[in-house]
Specification:
By secondary structure, the protein is α+β, with helices and mostly antiparallel strands. The protein has a domain at about 250-425: Transferase(Phosphotransferase) domain 1 (Transferase(Phosphotransferase), domain 1, Orthogonal Bundle), CATH 1.10.510.10. The protein has helices spanning about 15-20, 45-60, 70-85, 105, 110-115, 135-145, 145-160, 225-235, 250-270, 315, 325-340, 380-395, 405-420; strands spanning about 1-5, 25-30, 35-40, 85-90, 95-105, 160-170, 175-180, 190-195, 210-215, 215-220, 240-250, 270-275, 280-285, 290, 295-300, 340-355, 355-370, 425, 435-440, 440-450. β4 and β5 form a beta hairpin. The protein is globular.
Length: about 450
């Protein structure tokens, strides 16, 4: 993440200005590191083009000369849609809301777990869905299973809906909303509208802030607001700016995964399966970690969709899932946090993803996990304990896995307490560049997202 050396003043407006001002900056709340989170919106070019082209089509000089009905539609429907402003229902009340042009994960960045664990994706041909469907669709079509075919159709429709930011113009409260893939122009929001859960790096404990530039480097504890501000000020005064990273204890990341597993266990107690446990569907907030965007599958039925990189083998091939399917994904995340390598036979599995296209998925028949302790102050007992825990969780043979996420959480917490993980991992944040904001002679800093 870049720290800008620019001295341009940033004027922060009210949320209501998103409806009336083509260019404005508003505050969304606090970014994960505690700095203010700003959103810059610029629709001036689109609106200028709209109000210059439409009068030409009607053969008049200015927009005010258009027929009244056309002018009303232009100002209240088309222009408002370009601005991203719509009538919405929030808490059973009618409100005006602003919907972002970019998808939420591209605007504010992936979740903290995704930034820590998800490897950058290799360039591939565009696919229809963010989370492709499993082989259930092909199997349901082969067997003419109407109920399953309906479930697949519903899953495809849900996957095509993109998650965007919605801001309540009256209160400034940020929400998450869905926008259907076929409505990308005006971005009309659809349910569910949920308050945006803001993540917190402080939940990871003793996080260190690392600031690097060509003339020096500085570090400070995230909890030391004055130290972080002074380091940012030094980078700001450097003509070429610099970069920002965070150092996080793997021990604390694994502790947050325990919280995720305990939350998922509440589903398992109701004979439900999350079905899409992946770093991008995990939130680490000040009040605890939790998973979201679950498929909420009834145990004993197949999953119609999956995030292939983290999904259990039985889910990908279209077999019925149960709580052990979620345990596999939790084990994959624990392995990634530890820096382990899963080993076993790997096969190439073909999964249809819509139309005449398919995707080749590497299906790993995991036999265990290897953790390298070479050149580390760790003994064989540490290695054996962790390898046994995560190796069991990711086993291809699901009868070897923990029966529920709760039992996995108990075992993970126990091994974590007895065999601490001393290493750290660095996070290069993706939630907006750091920019200076001024109030009189005082300089503070904020993260700036641009839509």
């Amino acid at each position: 993440m870049h720290v800008h050396a620019s001295r341009d003043r940033i004027l922060i407006g009210r949320a209501a200005e998103l409806e009336t001002s083509p260019r404005t900056v508003v505050q969304l709340g606090a970014a994960p590191d505690g700095l203010p989170w700003l959103l810059r919106v610029d629709r001036s070019h689109e609106l200028s083009t709209l109000f210059s082209v439409v009068p030409q089509v009607f053969g008049v000089a200015e927009a005010k000369d258009l027929p009244p009905r056309v002018l009303h539609a232009l100002e209240h429907d088309v222009a408002a849609g370009l601005m991203g402003v719509h009538d919405v229902t929030i808490d059973a009340g009618a409100r005006r809301g602003f919907v972002s042009r970019k998808k939420l994960k591209h605007l504010l960045g992936p979740t903290l777990f995704a930034q820590l664990l998800d490897a950058p994706a290799a360039p591939t041909a565009a696919e229809s869905y963010d989370s492709p469907i499993t082989n259930v669709g092909a199997m349901a079509s082969r067997d003419q299973n109407e109920a399953l075919l309906d479930a697949v159709d519903h899953s495809i429709e849900a996957l095509r809906a993109k998650r965007h930011l919605l801001v309540d113009l009256a209160t400034g409260q940020p929400y998450s909303c869905s926008v259907r893939d076929t409505d990308r122009a005006l971005r009309t929001p659809t349910a569910p509208l949920t308050p945006l859960a803001l993540e917190s790096l402080a939940a990871f404990g003793d996080v260190e802030v690392l600031l690097l530039s060509g003339v020096g480097s500085w570090h400070a504890a995230l909890a030391d607001a004055t130290g972080v501000h002074n380091a940012l000020l030094r980078l700001h005064q450097n003509p070429s700016g610099g970069s920002l990273r965070y150092s996080i204890s793997r021990q604390h990341v694994l502790a947050q995964l325990v919280g995720v597993a305990r939350a998922v266990d509440q589903l398992h107690r109701r004979e439900r399966v999350h079905g899409d446990l992946a770093p991008g569907n995990v939130l680490v907030c000040a009040d605890g970690a939790r998973a979201f965007d679950g498929l909420d599958i009834e145990a004993g039925t197949p999953a119609t969709a999956a995030t292939f990189e983290w999904a259990a083998p039985e889910q990908i091939v279209g077999h019925p899932v149960d709580p052990r399917t979620d345990v596999y994904a939790l084990g994959r995340m624990a392995t990634a946090i530890l820096g382990g390598v899963i080993f076993g036979e790997q096969t190439d599995y073909v999964v249809p993803i819509g139309g005449d296209r398919s995707r080749h998925v590497k299906l790993l028949k995991a036999e265990g996990v290897f953790l390298d302790i070479t050149d580390k102050s760790l003994d064989r007992a540490w290695q054996r304990a962790w390898q046994e825990l995560v190796g069991r969780a990711v086993s291809y043979d699901r009868t070897r896995r923990h029966p529920t996420a709760g039992q996995f959480a108990d075992d993970l917490a126990g091994v974590l307490e007895k065999y601490a993980v001393p290493s750290r991992v660095e996070l290069e944040p993706a939630f907006g560049d750091v920019v200076p904001i001024t109030s009189g002679a005082t300089i503070t800093f904020a993260h700036l997202a641009v839509d």
